[in-house]
Amino acid sequence: MSAAVFYLLAVLIVLAAAASVLAPSTRLVLLAVMAGDVLVGILLIAAGAYVLGAIAMVAPALCLFIVAALLRRAGYAALLADIPGPATGWQLAAAVCAGLGVLLVWTVATRVDDVANSAPGPNLLTLLHYRTPVSVGVAVVLAVVAAGGGLMIARTGEDERVLDRLAEQRRLREQRSRLRREHRAAARALRGGGGGAAP
Amino acid sequence: MNVGPAHYAVLSAVLFAIGLLGVTVHRNAVAALASLSVLFSAPVIAAVGFAESGNGSSPRLGDAVALFTLAALCAELIVGGAVAALLWRRAETADLDELDELDA
Protein backbone atom coordinates (compact mmCIF):
# COMPACT_ATOMS: atom_id res chain seq x y z
CA MET A 1 0.00 0.00 0.00
CA SER A 2 1.28 3.45 -0.81
CA ALA A 3 1.95 5.84 2.00
CA ALA A 4 -0.49 8.43 0.62
CA VAL A 5 -3.40 5.98 0.69
CA PHE A 6 -2.49 4.85 4.19
CA TYR A 7 -2.27 8.39 5.53
CA LEU A 8 -5.52 9.41 3.87
CA LEU A 9 -7.38 6.43 5.32
CA ALA A 10 -5.70 6.86 8.71
CA VAL A 11 -6.77 10.50 8.93
CA LEU A 12 -10.33 9.62 7.92
CA ILE A 13 -10.49 6.78 10.46
CA VAL A 14 -9.20 9.00 13.26
CA LEU A 15 -11.66 11.74 12.28
CA ALA A 16 -14.54 9.25 12.34
CA ALA A 17 -13.41 7.97 15.74
CA ALA A 18 -13.12 11.52 17.07
CA ALA A 19 -16.59 12.30 15.69
CA SER A 20 -17.95 9.27 17.54
CA VAL A 21 -16.73 10.83 20.80
CA LEU A 22 -17.72 14.42 20.10
CA ALA A 23 -21.04 13.90 18.28
CA PRO A 24 -23.88 15.55 20.20
CA SER A 25 -26.54 12.93 19.46
CA THR A 26 -26.67 9.16 19.75
CA ARG A 27 -27.71 8.82 16.11
CA LEU A 28 -24.62 10.75 14.97
CA VAL A 29 -22.43 8.61 17.23
CA LEU A 30 -23.80 5.46 15.58
CA LEU A 31 -23.30 6.93 12.11
CA ALA A 32 -19.72 7.96 12.90
CA VAL A 33 -18.91 4.50 14.27
CA MET A 34 -20.42 2.78 11.23
CA ALA A 35 -18.44 5.07 8.92
CA GLY A 36 -15.30 4.27 10.90
CA ASP A 37 -15.97 0.53 10.59
CA VAL A 38 -16.32 0.84 6.81
CA LEU A 39 -13.10 2.87 6.61
CA VAL A 40 -11.25 0.26 8.67
CA GLY A 41 -12.49 -2.39 6.23
CA ILE A 42 -11.19 -0.34 3.30
CA LEU A 43 -7.82 0.02 5.05
CA LEU A 44 -7.62 -3.74 5.56
CA ILE A 45 -8.46 -4.37 1.92
CA ALA A 46 -5.81 -1.86 0.88
CA ALA A 47 -3.37 -3.70 3.14
CA GLY A 48 -4.00 -6.94 1.23
CA ALA A 49 -6.36 -8.67 3.68
CA TYR A 50 -9.25 -8.87 1.24
CA VAL A 51 -11.53 -11.36 3.02
CA LEU A 52 -10.92 -9.84 6.41
CA GLY A 53 -11.45 -6.34 5.01
CA ALA A 54 -14.79 -7.36 3.52
CA ILE A 55 -15.85 -8.86 6.86
CA ALA A 56 -14.61 -5.82 8.81
CA MET A 57 -16.41 -3.49 6.45
CA VAL A 58 -19.78 -5.22 6.75
CA ALA A 59 -20.10 -7.26 9.96
CA PRO A 60 -19.62 -4.72 12.81
CA ALA A 61 -21.55 -1.93 11.07
CA LEU A 62 -24.35 -4.36 10.23
CA CYS A 63 -24.49 -5.69 13.82
CA LEU A 64 -24.64 -2.15 15.17
CA PHE A 65 -27.34 -1.20 12.70
CA ILE A 66 -29.41 -4.31 13.54
CA VAL A 67 -29.09 -3.69 17.28
CA ALA A 68 -30.15 -0.03 16.88
CA ALA A 69 -33.03 -0.95 14.55
CA LEU A 70 -34.26 -3.71 16.89
CA LEU A 71 -34.09 -1.42 19.91
CA ARG A 72 -36.00 1.23 18.02
CA ARG A 73 -38.72 -1.12 16.82
CA ALA A 74 -39.10 -3.18 19.99
CA GLY A 75 -40.17 -0.28 22.17
CA TYR A 76 -36.74 0.80 23.36
CA ALA A 77 -36.51 3.96 21.27
CA ALA A 78 -35.87 5.94 24.45
CA LEU A 79 -32.59 4.05 24.81
CA LEU A 80 -31.41 5.85 21.69
CA ALA A 81 -32.43 9.27 23.02
CA ASP A 82 -29.78 11.95 23.35
CA ILE A 83 -28.30 12.56 26.80
CA PRO A 84 -26.55 15.92 26.70
CA GLY A 85 -23.23 16.42 28.43
CA PRO A 86 -20.37 14.06 29.18
CA ALA A 87 -20.35 11.49 31.98
CA THR A 88 -19.33 12.35 35.51
CA GLY A 89 -15.57 12.48 35.89
CA TRP A 90 -14.90 12.82 32.18
CA GLN A 91 -11.84 14.97 32.85
CA LEU A 92 -10.16 12.09 34.68
CA ALA A 93 -11.21 9.65 31.95
CA ALA A 94 -9.83 11.96 29.25
CA ALA A 95 -6.54 12.35 31.10
CA VAL A 96 -6.19 8.57 31.57
CA CYS A 97 -7.05 7.92 27.90
CA ALA A 98 -4.58 10.56 26.71
CA GLY A 99 -1.87 9.08 28.93
CA LEU A 100 -2.58 5.58 27.67
CA GLY A 101 -2.58 6.80 24.08
CA VAL A 102 0.75 8.57 24.46
CA LEU A 103 2.24 5.50 26.17
CA LEU A 104 0.97 3.16 23.44
CA VAL A 105 2.13 5.42 20.62
CA TRP A 106 5.55 5.87 22.18
CA THR A 107 5.92 2.13 22.79
CA VAL A 108 4.92 1.01 19.32
CA ALA A 109 6.79 3.82 17.58
CA THR A 110 10.03 2.87 19.28
CA ARG A 111 9.73 -0.92 19.39
CA VAL A 112 7.76 -2.17 16.42
CA ASP A 113 10.31 -1.56 13.65
CA ASP A 114 12.11 -4.74 14.70
CA VAL A 115 9.56 -6.70 12.64
CA ALA A 116 11.09 -7.61 9.28
CA ASN A 117 9.52 -6.35 6.06
CA SER A 118 9.06 -9.09 3.52
CA ALA A 119 6.48 -10.79 1.35
CA PRO A 120 3.26 -11.89 3.10
CA GLY A 121 2.52 -15.56 3.78
CA PRO A 122 -0.51 -17.64 2.79
CA ASN A 123 -3.80 -15.78 2.63
CA LEU A 124 -6.47 -15.93 5.31
CA LEU A 125 -8.75 -18.49 3.63
CA THR A 126 -5.87 -20.94 3.13
CA LEU A 127 -4.78 -20.42 6.70
CA LEU A 128 -8.27 -20.90 8.14
CA HIS A 129 -9.08 -23.90 5.99
CA TYR A 130 -5.87 -25.87 6.30
CA ARG A 131 -4.25 -24.76 9.52
CA THR A 132 -6.88 -23.53 11.92
CA PRO A 133 -10.21 -25.20 11.07
CA VAL A 134 -10.97 -25.69 14.77
CA SER A 135 -10.50 -21.96 15.37
CA VAL A 136 -13.00 -21.17 12.64
CA GLY A 137 -15.46 -23.52 14.30
CA VAL A 138 -14.89 -21.81 17.64
CA ALA A 139 -15.49 -18.39 16.04
CA VAL A 140 -18.73 -19.61 14.46
CA VAL A 141 -19.88 -21.12 17.75
CA LEU A 142 -19.04 -17.84 19.50
CA ALA A 143 -21.15 -15.88 17.03
CA VAL A 144 -24.10 -18.28 17.32
CA VAL A 145 -23.92 -18.36 21.11
CA ALA A 146 -23.74 -14.55 21.20
CA ALA A 147 -26.81 -14.22 19.00
CA GLY A 148 -28.69 -16.80 21.09
CA GLY A 149 -27.55 -15.22 24.35
CA GLY A 150 -28.58 -11.78 23.15
CA LEU A 151 -32.02 -13.02 22.19
CA MET A 152 -32.38 -14.81 25.52
CA ILE A 153 -31.30 -11.78 27.55
CA ALA A 154 -33.59 -9.39 25.70
CA ARG A 155 -36.56 -11.74 25.31
CA THR A 156 -40.00 -10.73 26.52
CA GLY A 157 -41.48 -14.03 27.70
CA GLU A 158 -44.24 -14.52 30.27
CA ASP A 159 -41.77 -14.55 33.17
CA GLU A 160 -40.30 -11.26 31.96
CA ARG A 161 -43.77 -9.73 31.80
CA VAL A 162 -44.42 -10.87 35.38
CA LEU A 163 -41.14 -9.27 36.47
CA ASP A 164 -42.00 -6.09 34.61
CA ARG A 165 -45.42 -6.00 36.33
CA LEU A 166 -43.80 -6.47 39.73
CA ALA A 167 -41.27 -3.74 38.99
CA GLU A 168 -44.06 -1.41 37.89
CA GLN A 169 -46.05 -2.14 41.08
CA ARG A 170 -42.95 -1.47 43.16
CA ARG A 171 -42.38 1.81 41.37
CA LEU A 172 -45.98 2.86 41.96
CA ARG A 173 -45.76 1.90 45.65
CA GLU A 174 -42.60 3.92 46.07
CA GLN A 175 -44.15 6.86 44.25
CA ARG A 176 -47.25 6.76 46.49
CA SER A 177 -45.21 6.56 49.68
CA ARG A 178 -43.01 9.43 48.49
CA LEU A 179 -46.10 11.53 47.77
CA ARG A 180 -47.54 10.65 51.21
CA ARG A 181 -44.29 11.71 52.86
CA GLU A 182 -44.26 14.95 50.94
CA HIS A 183 -47.90 15.67 51.82
CA ARG A 184 -47.27 14.95 55.50
CA ALA A 185 -44.23 17.20 55.49
CA ALA A 186 -46.19 19.95 53.75
CA ALA A 187 -49.07 19.60 56.21
CA ARG A 188 -46.66 19.71 59.16
CA ALA A 189 -45.03 22.80 57.77
CA LEU A 190 -48.45 24.38 57.26
CA ARG A 191 -49.53 23.50 60.81
CA GLY A 192 -46.31 24.79 62.23
CA GLY A 193 -46.60 28.02 60.26
CA GLY A 194 -50.30 28.34 61.13
CA GLY A 195 -49.64 27.58 64.83
CA GLY A 196 -47.00 30.26 64.98
CA ALA A 197 -49.30 32.82 63.39
CA ALA A 198 -52.33 31.94 65.58
CA PRO A 199 -52.86 33.90 68.81
CA MET B 1 8.07 5.92 1.68
CA ASN B 2 6.92 2.45 2.69
CA VAL B 3 4.18 1.79 5.19
CA GLY B 4 5.64 -0.37 7.94
CA PRO B 5 4.21 -2.08 10.99
CA ALA B 6 4.93 0.98 13.10
CA HIS B 7 2.44 3.00 11.04
CA TYR B 8 -0.33 0.49 11.70
CA ALA B 9 0.65 0.24 15.33
CA VAL B 10 0.55 4.00 15.87
CA LEU B 11 -2.84 4.24 14.17
CA SER B 12 -4.02 1.34 16.32
CA ALA B 13 -2.79 3.04 19.50
CA VAL B 14 -4.53 6.30 18.63
CA LEU B 15 -7.78 4.48 17.84
CA PHE B 16 -7.59 2.52 21.09
CA ALA B 17 -7.20 5.72 23.11
CA ILE B 18 -10.07 7.44 21.28
CA GLY B 19 -12.30 4.38 21.68
CA LEU B 20 -11.52 4.17 25.38
CA LEU B 21 -12.33 7.85 25.74
CA GLY B 22 -15.65 7.32 23.95
CA VAL B 23 -16.60 4.42 26.23
CA THR B 24 -15.86 6.41 29.38
CA VAL B 25 -17.28 9.76 28.29
CA HIS B 26 -20.62 8.78 26.76
CA ARG B 27 -23.59 8.76 29.10
CA ASN B 28 -25.91 6.91 26.74
CA ALA B 29 -25.50 3.13 27.01
CA VAL B 30 -25.90 2.54 23.27
CA ALA B 31 -23.39 5.28 22.40
CA ALA B 32 -20.86 3.76 24.82
CA LEU B 33 -21.51 0.38 23.21
CA ALA B 34 -20.86 1.87 19.78
CA SER B 35 -17.60 3.38 21.02
CA LEU B 36 -16.51 -0.13 22.01
CA SER B 37 -16.56 -0.86 18.30
CA VAL B 38 -13.88 1.81 17.76
CA LEU B 39 -11.86 0.30 20.59
CA PHE B 40 -12.08 -3.17 19.03
CA SER B 41 -10.95 -1.86 15.64
CA ALA B 42 -7.55 -0.99 17.12
CA PRO B 43 -6.25 -4.58 17.59
CA VAL B 44 -7.69 -5.58 14.21
CA ILE B 45 -5.62 -2.90 12.46
CA ALA B 46 -2.52 -3.79 14.47
CA ALA B 47 -2.84 -7.51 13.75
CA VAL B 48 -3.35 -6.99 10.02
CA GLY B 49 -0.51 -4.48 9.87
CA PHE B 50 1.86 -6.92 11.53
CA ALA B 51 0.65 -9.74 9.28
CA GLU B 52 1.24 -7.63 6.18
CA SER B 53 4.74 -6.68 7.24
CA GLY B 54 5.64 -9.95 8.89
CA ASN B 55 8.05 -12.65 7.89
CA GLY B 56 6.91 -14.32 4.64
CA SER B 57 7.84 -17.80 5.79
CA SER B 58 5.14 -17.80 8.42
CA PRO B 59 1.39 -17.78 7.68
CA ARG B 60 -0.68 -14.63 8.21
CA LEU B 61 -1.66 -15.55 11.73
CA GLY B 62 -2.40 -11.89 12.39
CA ASP B 63 -5.36 -12.13 10.02
CA ALA B 64 -6.75 -15.06 11.99
CA VAL B 65 -6.34 -13.11 15.24
CA ALA B 66 -8.10 -10.15 13.63
CA LEU B 67 -10.93 -12.41 12.50
CA PHE B 68 -11.41 -13.59 16.06
CA THR B 69 -11.40 -10.02 17.28
CA LEU B 70 -14.11 -9.16 14.77
CA ALA B 71 -16.17 -12.17 15.86
CA ALA B 72 -15.79 -11.05 19.48
CA LEU B 73 -16.79 -7.51 18.49
CA CYS B 74 -19.97 -8.70 16.79
CA ALA B 75 -20.80 -10.90 19.80
CA GLU B 76 -20.17 -7.97 22.13
CA LEU B 77 -22.43 -5.67 20.11
CA ILE B 78 -25.30 -8.18 20.14
CA VAL B 79 -25.03 -9.09 23.83
CA GLY B 80 -24.35 -5.47 24.80
CA GLY B 81 -27.49 -4.34 22.99
CA ALA B 82 -29.50 -6.99 24.81
CA VAL B 83 -28.02 -5.96 28.17
CA ALA B 84 -28.82 -2.31 27.42
CA ALA B 85 -32.43 -3.31 26.72
CA LEU B 86 -32.53 -5.32 29.95
CA LEU B 87 -31.16 -2.38 31.95
CA TRP B 88 -33.77 -0.15 30.39
CA ARG B 89 -36.53 -2.52 31.44
CA ARG B 90 -35.25 -2.60 35.01
CA ALA B 91 -34.16 0.99 35.57
CA GLU B 92 -36.00 2.83 32.78
CA THR B 93 -32.99 4.95 32.03
CA ALA B 94 -30.30 4.94 29.39
CA ASP B 95 -28.08 7.26 31.41
CA LEU B 96 -25.06 5.33 32.64
CA ASP B 97 -24.48 7.95 35.35
CA GLU B 98 -27.80 6.96 36.93
CA LEU B 99 -27.06 3.24 36.88
CA ASP B 100 -25.18 3.26 40.15
CA GLU B 101 -27.01 0.40 41.84
CA LEU B 102 -26.64 -3.26 41.02
CA ASP B 103 -30.22 -3.99 42.13
CA ALA B 104 -31.82 -1.40 39.86
What does the model show?
The complex is a heterodimer of chains A (199) and B (104). By secondary structure, chain A is mainly α. Chain A is built from seven helices and no strands. In chain A, 78% of the residues lie in helices and 0% in strands. The mean pLDDT of chain A is 80. In chain B, 74% of the residues lie in helices and 0% in strands. Chain B has three helices and no strands. Chain B has helices at 5-25, 29-53, 61-91. At the A-B interface, α1, α2, α3, α4 and α5 of A face α1, α2 and α3 of B.
Lay out the secondary structure:
The complex is a heterodimer of chains A (199) and B (104).
Chain A: H1 3-22, H2 26-46, H3 50-73, H4 90-111, H5 124-131, H6 133-153, H7 158-197
Chain B: H1 5-25, H2 29-53, H3 61-91
Helix pairs in contact in B: 1-2, 2-3
The outline of chain A comes out as extended
End-to-end C-alpha gap of chain A = 93 Å
Report the major sheet of chain A: none
Number of helices of chain B: 3
Radius of gyration computed on alpha carbons of chain A: 27 Å
Portion of residues in beta strands of chain A equals under 5%
Principal-axis shape of chain B equals: elongated
Tell me, rounded to a whole number, the average pLDDT of chain A: 80
Brief description of this entry?
The complex is a heterodimer of chains A (199) and B (104). Chain A is an all-alpha fold.
Structural descriptors:
heterodimer, A: 199 residues, mainly alpha, 78% helix, extended, B: 104 residues, 0% strand
